Amino acid sequence: MLLQILLIVQVVAMAGLIVIGGLVEGYGYGLSLGTRWPYHEKMLTRAIWHDPEIWHRMLATILGLNAIVILALAPTANTIAGLVLIALTALLGIATLHVLAGKAPAFLHGLHGLLAYTTYITYLLALHPDSLSIWAYLAGMVPLHPFLLMIFLGGMTTGQRGYQRPIGAFVLPRTKGQWAFALHYLGGLLFLLALGYYAQSYSGALVLALTQFIVGFMLFHAVNDNPKRPGILVAFHQIMALLILLAIVYTWQVHIPGLG
After folding, report:
1. Which of 39, 108, 133, 213 has the fewest CB atoms lying closer than 10 Å?
2. What stretch of H or E contains 244?
3. What's the predicted TM-score (pTM) here?
């Protein structure tokens, strides 16, 4: 019973961490505490509700401690992988700060997002004792391959545009940030094609992914209109991605005319 409660807490908190990361980006707090991670002396003096970057760091610490307790209670392939992935995600969290500061390559930002979502999937699987290991599950779950690629390229786009800078409107990409966004867009199209091919099983994910495309274009314009504070759309974009992931893992179904 205790183990199940801790796993539910881990899944909910992991989703919260991802959404709070969107708030950090959306309201321009990415470097509010500098590049020192996780601890910063301002965390003790600044009001917690004033800066989502503080929430992000505190919740990441709680997730790490909870992962250790879960592993002690149930040392399985997924709980071991979960702890390792959380540790790697934390290390990449440090790297993302240096990406935003212009001191590290943008792909590290994409890798941070990729690891965060893979960790989330791992604990979703850990909730079900008879599940496959995360690696066997990912190998056989084809729609997740373009999904995770899209997550990586989305992080790349954020990292490549840098801290509080626009991507810029374009027809043909000219800057690295525009190329990253173009690849992210192509990754999204690939994901839609994969979901379309498997639409009878993943119709819910397909509908959500189509909605996500609209949200993505709105976010693109929000970033260009106000690159320092594109706003709540960043967090909403992450919420939609989490819902798409859940729709794939749990095969949510909606009726689409013509699919039977």
Report:
1. 39
2. helix 233-249
3. 0.93
Q: How far apart are CA 253 and CA 140, in angstroms?
A: 20
Torsion of CA 186, 188, 193, 195, to 10 degrees: 170
Calculate the CA 140 to chain-centre distance: 21
H/E segment holding residue 22:
helix 2-26
Q: Which residues of the chain have pLDDT under 70?
A: 37-49, 258-260
Phi/psi for 104 (5° steps) reads -145, 155
Q: What pLDDT sits at residue 5? A: 95
Q: Which residue has the tokens 């800057």?
A: 175
**What pLDDT does 47 receive?**
57
The pLDDT value given to residue 42? 64
Q: Where are the domains of the chain?
A: 1-250
CB atoms within 10 A of CB 222: 18
Distances (CA, A) of 111 to 50, 101, 153, 173: 28, 17, 9, 23
Residue where the block lists tokens 């997550």? 151
Q: What is the pLDDT of residue 257?
A: 72
In a 10 Å sphere around its CB, with 0-12 CB exposed, 13-18 middle and 19+ buried, how is residue 171 labelled? exposed
- DSSP letters, 124-187, are HHHTSTTPPPHHHHHHH-TTHHHHHHHHHHHHHHHHHH-TT------SS--SHHHHHHHHHHHH
pLDDT tens-digit readout, 52-95: 888 888 899 999 999 999 999 999 999 999 999 999 999 998 88
Token pair listed for 228: 């320092």
What confidence score (pLDDT) does residue 35 get? 75
Q: Read off the tokens for 190.
A: 């690939």
